[in-house]
Amino acid sequence: MKILAIDSSGSAVSAAIADDDKIIAEYILNFKMTHSQTLMPSVDEIVLSSGFNIHELDYIAVTAGPGSFTGLRIGAAAAKGLAHGLGIDIIPVPTLEALAYNIFETDRIICPIMDARRSQVYNAFYEFKDGSLLEVYPQEARSIEDVIEKAAKAGKKVIFLGDAVPVYKERLAAEENFILAPQNCNMQRASSVAALAFKYAEESRTVKYSDFAPFYLRKPQAERELEEKKAMGSAEND
After folding, report:
1. Residue 199: phi, psi to the nearest 5?
2. What pTM value is reported for the model?
3. Measured between alpha carbons, how far is 157 from 185 in angstroms, rounded to an integer?
4. Beta 13-19 vs 22-29: how paired, if at all?
5. Quick check: 133 and 100 in contact, CB under 8 A?
């Protein structure tokens, strides 16, 4: 089974090609360029440098959310376009689950956190049991203090990873049972998306390109701002 995995849900963009138990190529770019500029060139780069025949692909795997609204839409558009052109299905992988999979077979709780701005983080809690990554608390957008409070009650050490770790490093480091992952674990990696996608494929958790849509957990900023303006206008008219 051959899978092309892409991730543009956070600050980094990543693409990888995997063939069963082998990662053939992976490209990660975490720089000040838009994902619309970097995602498809990243895919082209790994295809060209590896000499891989893209028509041999069985699936396109993509992070389905949460994450950056723009990033998720760009990833979804790329995945749908590729899947449609190649006549294959998509494997949606939850962003935070893929991020948590950067760490493997630990007896600690894993808490990926992504900066959601507005003083919130996208987060979830996972743990490994018999080699499988299981969800302890579901994906949600909460304040970092709420996440810290929940983690403090976990009953065991908690590993934090993700692009929100540097943002809240001092606050997290102040807690005795918290472990902060090194920077190489904090970026979304398409290779982790691919690894989970193989498991999802075995469970038939695939969708047609026309049925795929990312999920956001929160409303887009433009929609929230519009609702706030309408609420303020209604209050002024009362």
Report:
1. -65, -40
2. 0.90
3. 17
4. antiparallel
5. yes
What is the C-alpha to C-alpha distance for residues 193 and 18, in angstroms, rounded to an integer?
Answer: 10
Decide: 58 and 83 in contact? Cβ < 8 Å.
no
> Which single residue is written with the structure tokens 């900023």?
221
179/159 Cα distance (integer angstroms): 5
Residues 6+ apart with CB under 8 A from 60: 3, 4, 5, 6, 79, 82, 83, 86, 88, 89, 90, 91, 209
CB 72 within 8 A of CB 9: yes
What gap in Å lies between CA 10 and CA 173, rounded to an integer? Answer: 23
Give per-residue pLDDT as tens, 9-51.
998 999 999 999 899 999 999 887 789 999 999 999 999 999 9
119: Cα within 13 Å, side-chain hemisphere: 3
- If you compute the radius of gyration of the chain from its CA atoms, what whole number of angstroms results? 19
Report the 10 Å Cβ neighbour count for 119.
Answer: 10
Q: What is the mean pLDDT of the chain?
A: 92
